[in-house]
Amino acid sequence: MPSITFTQPDGTAQRLEVEQGTTLMRAAVSNGIDGIVxxxxxxAMCATCHVYIRPEYADALPELGADEDExxxxxxxxxxxxxxxxxxxxxxxxxxxxxxxxPAGQV
Amino acid sequence: MSVVIIGGGQSALQVAxxxxxxxxxxxxxxVADEAGLPYQRPPLSKDFLSPQGTPKPLPLRGENFxxxxxxxxxxxxxxxxxxxxxxxxxxxxxxxxxxTHLVLATGARNRLIECPGSKLDGVHSLRTLDDVQDLHAAxxxxxxxxxxxxxxxxxxxAAAARAHDCHVTVLEFAARPMARALSEPMSQWFAxxxxxxxxxLRLNEGIExxxxxxGGEVMAAVSSTGQRYPADLVLVGVGVLPNVALxxxxxxxxxxxxxxxxxxxxxxxxxxxxxxxxxxxNVHSPGRTRLExxxxxxxxxxxLAGSILGDESPYADLPWFWSTQGPYRLQIAxxxxxxxxxxxxxxxxxxxxxxxxFRGEALAAVESVNLPAxxxxxxxxxxxxxxxxxxxxxxxxxxxxxxxxxxxxxx
Lengths: 107, 411
Ligand SMILES: Cc1cc2nc3c(=O)[nH]c(=O)nc-3n(C[C@H](O)[C@H](O)[C@H](O)COP(=O)(O)OP(=O)(O)OC[C@H]3O[C@@H](n4cnc5c(N)ncnc54)[C@H](O)[C@@H]3O)c2cc1C
Ligand code: FES
Fold this sequence. Notes:
The complex is a heterodimer.
Chain A: E1 3-7, E2 13-17, H1 24-30, E3 50-53, H2 66-71, E4 83-85, E5 97-101
Parallel strand pairs in A: 1-5
Antiparallel strand pairs in A: 1-2, 3-4, 3-5
Chain B: E1 2-6, H1 10-21, E2 27-32, H2 63-68, E3 71-75, E4 79-83, E5 88-91, E6 96-98, E7 101-104, E8 108-110, E9 123-124, H3 129-138, E10 144-148, H4 152-163, E11 167-171, H5 184-196, E12 200-202, E13 207-212, E14 218-223, E15 228-230, E16 233-236, E17 240-242, H6 245-249, E18 258-259, E19 271-273, E20 278-281, E21 288-289, H7 294-308, E22 320-325, E23 328-334, E24 341-347, E25 352-359, E26 362-369, H8 372-383, H9 390-394, H10 400-410
Parallel strand pairs in B: 1-2, 1-7, 2-3, 7-19, 9-16, 10-11, 10-16, 11-12, 18-20
Antiparallel strand pairs in B: 4-5, 5-6, 8-17, 13-14, 14-15, 20-21, 22-23, 23-26, 24-25, 25-26
Helix pairs in contact in B: 1-7, 8-10
The complex binds flavin-adenine dinucleotide (FAD) and FE2/S2 (inorganic) cluster (FES).
């Protein structure tokens, strides 16, 4: 099973095992991970599922979509080159594990 | 001290979450008549119904949220009566709950149509997970789909049914689609866009009756102009009605929703209401409104949690909304209104453009298709009360994004 590790701003980490194809947002929301909201239900419309991807996983990610890129301009916490929307990234064959950092705020 | 929240939707969950986030440590109970973990509605009419989609609910909060935050969820239980003098809520399971503050987050239900055949098998509506599971099962075998009502949900569904290669007819009583919510140019653009997707959009044409086949299932829809459309699946999407019975029976003021003040308080100071069921004084449009959107539910919830804890500031967040219809992502910042002066920015033929709505010389709302940058900029600009005139927006090289940068820099 693919795994996702969410690291909180205070350093605590939670590792989840999820079904193939689960998005980071769905995994976080379904498992009560603090700091990921997912208010629009994964439509890339709200930017409340913002995460920072650990650089070692950057190459395994799908390319940044134009809509996602524009939405990332309105995240509550600072956008960095590691910023992505958690609803646009799914675990799967090409991404069997990932570690992400949760920003300090989403709204 | 205790807060009881009636309803298990986006509004209810966010109130509970925000109360805890603001340091409220007393008892919080959510009474939700739908059984199971509360879920998000927007995907129901979008991803879930696409040919690759599965109607797997997306929870609003995970199961452990309730234990972690000490929030009691009574799911599958409805509130049946409010005893205001004794501050008690009666429940369908025979129990009752005392409250210091009561929150009505009862949402809305689909408006039903009363016409011959409206209860036939194959005539659906779409609001709950159960509804979407039925539709998901029926769509792959459906050939002729009739949608009654060209509102957001009707058109989202129409686009999904086209993706399943169904023949789709949409009957709309009004002269243009999404007429209540969209400016004329945007509404007209969507009419053409849906026709280009292969939808037969019939305007100025309502439903008269449905006809049954031998087995009692729907076979055809007959419109107000006497046209007969074959139909093996019908979706009725003619708007919603706010759930106000509980409030009304308790003697609270209602008028197209439960009437609340700027702090989202009802006519009883210990009872609040929000979201789809609440009629509130809206600073972004003249008079009062009741809105049906995720933004309205969640922003009001955050505000209401503050009101319970004694914050008297007025709710004033800018409304925004989105709808995904096939390949088109519509986003709206602010509320457009009949009589607004409109200006199209960008080229509609590219399916990437915005309609700016001006009221009394200033920008009041922006509707964008496939242009999140314009939408986000509009939210910042209108939200901050920036005055943008039509003359300014007509200048060569004007872009909402650049204008928003200017204000961001100034703050
Ligand atoms: C198919 C669909 C698609 C949508 N798409 C979008 C979109 O793209 N963008 C957007 O912004 N918004 C969208 N919306 C609107 C958005 O989902 C709603 O505005 C939002 O869910 C409102 O939340 P609420 O909590 O106020 O009400 P609701 O979600 O209606 O929740 C109220 C709950 O309270 C329960 N209840 C009522 N009375 C009682 C009682 N007496 N006791 C116990 N429980 C009770 C109801 O059964 C319901 O479960 C969509 C809605 C639907 C149905
Ligand atoms: S859930 Fe809204 S942008 Fe990801």
